[in-house]
Amino acid sequence: MEEIHPAAVKHLPPFITPPGQTDILFVVMTVFLIGIVLIIGSLYLRLHALPEQVAHRTHKVQMDIVAILAVISLFTHNHLYWIAALLLAFVQLPDFTTPISSMAKSLEKLAHGGDRRREELTVVPEAAMAQSLEMPIHDARRSEETLKVVPGTPPLPDKLEARS
Fold this sequence. Notes:
- The protein is mainly alpha-helical.
- It is built from 7 helices and 2 strands; from the N terminus they run αααααβααβ.
């Protein structure tokens, strides 16, 4: 072991290393500091992404707005944007587009309904119907008789009709 300088104290603390050797305390503290910075940074970014994760189960437009507010708050360090994103993520906005588009489709059907060609109804004789159903004619007549008639509906016609 080398001689200690005469101005040095006789009992040096253990974290002081002699010249030319590796400083173990410095290496441990460097690894610890890098690990803590990575863990805190990961938690910080995860906390910043919280509104986006909550908004994932909402509508597309609402999720896009929340994502934009979260990114703005991340780069500007303005917490008001993050709070607005979090509140917007938890509030369910009413869906106006679905009923309005449904009404538009219904109005379009009503408007163009008269222009469509109506296919003619074909009259099927009882014998042909019974043959297609593979039952005797008297069973076909009996099946017509067993139909329940709802009050206020017109009576069944004598000939059966089928729509194509």
